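User: quick one, fold this
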Amino acid sequence: MDVSGNRGLALPRGDRCPTDHAIPDVVFAPVELDVLADDDAYMPPHGVALVVEVTSTRPDNDRGAKRHCYARGGIPLYVLVDRDRRTVTLFSEPSGDDYAESHSAAFGKPIQLPAPFSFELDTADFT
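Assistant:
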C-alpha cells in the first residue's frame, strides 16, 4: 500500500455531503495504481482503499459530513479514531452517501481490517 498524510480528495457533493472536497488525515491506495503520484491539490477518490480520520477540534465533521462524503466518493473503507468517545470505528460497504456496515471497538480492544489489509488493528496504545 501507498500512504499519504493530509492528501486532498475531490468528492461528489450532494445529499449529506455538503462539500466537494475533504482532506483526510491519512489516505491508503494500492501502490500499483499510483494514484498518490498526482500533484493536483485535490485528487479523485478512485483507487483509494482506505481513509483515516482522527477527531480533533471539529469531531462532528469527522463523524458526519466527512463520513458521508467518503461514502459518496465510493471509498471502500473509512476508519475513524474518535478521541472523545475513545473508540475506533471501521465503516465499510459504501452505499449512496453512507456506509452500510460499521464496527466499533473501544480503545484497547482490537478491530479487524478487511482485505486488502487483512489484519487486526491493535488499539492498546490508543488509551
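User: anything notable?
Assistant: Residues 59-72 form the longest helix (14 residues).
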